[in-house]
Automatic annotation (TrEMBL):
The keyword Transmembrane does not apply. It comes from Candidimonas nitroreducens. This is Fructose-1,6-bisphosphatase class 1. Gene3D superfamilies: 3.40.190.80, Fructose-1,6-Bisphosphatase, subunit A, domain 1 (3.30.540.10). NCBIfam families: PRK09293.1-1, PRK09293.1-3, PRK09293.1-4. Residues 6-196 form the Fructose-1-6-bisphosphatase class I N-terminal domain. Mg(2+) 1 binds at E92, D114, L116. Signal peptide: none annotated. Keywords: Carbohydrate metabolism, Cytoplasm, Hydrolase, Magnesium, Metal-binding. Homotetramer. Its main location: cytoplasm. Mg(2+) 2 binds at D114, D117, E283.
Length: 338
């Protein structure tokens, strides 16, 4: 029987053969993966673990926090603060950055995460997930501690990115800049086992994912593309399209990595939608890195997402990502409009 490759073995191999990861990054990813296992365990218990429902608190974006949002955030902080591989962390659930407590050594990397993405699906037993991004901490010769400004790096600077999806199976999908691989959690053994080597996104697709209830607010290029999809075989795109919308970015992107498609959460005309909904640093950037590494593309309409210079930790951005040919078409429609 062929021996199974675990996450640890995969990372050691990357470190040894391709030098794609340093020992610190390997440790960091393994620690995040261990935290994801714990989050997946809590998610799996649901009502039995008393973890469903909301708290009375709001996060910095004014969203009501779910118990699992906060618990997942704590699991990730606790798992990562003591290993010596990080200079600081940032999260969707925290207003500003989290400094590594003085009692622990500091490392050279920055970790950003959305601890539990797809919050509206937590209480209804639909797939949710964790998204993470790893950056290098700038070196300060003065020895001063890192600050929020140090996190504001374009997505192309990411060293690694990944997500865990908690669904019928728990899976971890990862890139260290050398393609995309997927691991499935072997619940009996408690280990992440490599099950999806070299994930690639088909270039063409006939499936789109967008929240159609926002249609009246969309900008013209988005409306044009979706109108053409809806026109089917006799329309300008010449084929019938299907639609899927899970409303967990992790699950929607995972489907696209599995069988192609386009995912859009575009900017729109609402006062709350002008900048987009999804956050660049810990949602759009890691997902765009993964999608590009799998042969797909990611844009905000005008620019490649990974090229955008962020100006704030919780900055939002319009997102169009997935199969290359479709994303490029949407981008062309934006250029036509400009
Ligand atoms: P969250 O981080 O608070 O869960 O919000 C992000 C989620 C994405 O997972 C998903 O794509 C989107 O919000 C769904 O939004 P909507 O409910 O407007 O369809
Ligand atoms: Mg999110």
């Amino acid at each position: 029987m062929k021996r199974k490759t675990t996450l640890t073995q995969y990372l050691v191999e990357q470190q040894r053969k391709k030098q794609a990861v340093s020992a610190e990054v390997r440790l960091l990813i393994e620690t995040v993966a261990r935290a994801c296992k714990a989050i997946g365990h809590a998610v799996g218990k649901g009502a039995l673990g008393g973890v469903l429902g909301s708290l009375e608190t709001e996060n910095v974006q004014g969203e009501v926090q779910k118990k699992l949002d906060v618990l997942s955030n704590e699991i990730l902080l606790e798992a990562n603060e003591w290993g010596g591989h990080l200079a600081a962390m940032a999260s969707e659930e925290m207003e500003t950055i989290y400094h590594i407590p003085n009692r622990y050594p500091k490392g050279e990397y920055l970790l950003l995460f959305d601890p539990l993405d797809g919050s509206s699906n937590i209480d209804v037993n639909v797939s949710i997930g964790t998204i993470f991004s790893v950056l290098r901490a700038p070196h300060h010769s003065s020895g001063r501690a890192v600050d929020e400004q140090d996190f504001l790096q374009a997505g192309k600077e990411q060293v690694a990115a990944g997500y865990a999806v908690y669904g019928p199976q728990s899976m971890l999908v990862l890139t260290v800049g050398a393609g995309v691989v997927g691991f499935t959690l072997d619940r009996e053994m408690g280990s992440w086992v490599l099950t999806h080597d070299n994930i690639t996104i088909p270039e063409q697709t006939s499936e789109f994912a967008i929240n159609m209830s926002n249609m009246r607010h969309w900008e013209t290029p988005v409306r044009r593309y979706i109108d053409e999809c809806l026109a089917g075989k006799t329309g300008p795109l010449g084929k019938d399209y299907n639609m899927r919308w899970i409303a967990s970015m992790v699950a929607d992107v995972h489907r696209i990595l599995s069988r192609g498609g386009i995912f859009m959460y575009p900017r729109d005309a609402r006062p709350s939608g002008r900048a987009g909904k999804l956050r660049i640093m810990y949602e759009a950037n890691p997902m765009s890195f993964i999608v590009e590494q799998a042969g797909g593309a990611a844009t905000d309409g005008a620019r490649r997402i990974l090229d955008i210079q962020p100006e704030a930790l919780h900055q939002r951005v319009g997102v169009v990502l997935g199969s290359r040919a479709e994303v490029e078409r949407v981008q062309r429609y934006h250029q036509d409009q400009a």
